[in-house]
Amino acid sequence: MPLLWIVQAQLDRAHATIKADNPRGAMAFPKSQGGGGWVPLAAMHKIAERLGCSHMDVYEVATFFTMYNREKRGRFHIMLCATTPCMVCGAYDIMHTIEKHLGIKAGETTADGEFTLTEVECLGACVNAPMVQVNDMFFENLTTESTVQLLDNLKAGNPVKIGPQNGLTNSEGPMGRTSLIEPPLGPQCRDLGA
Ligand code: FES
Question: What are the GO cellular component annotations (predicted)?
Answer without folding.
Answer: mitochondrion
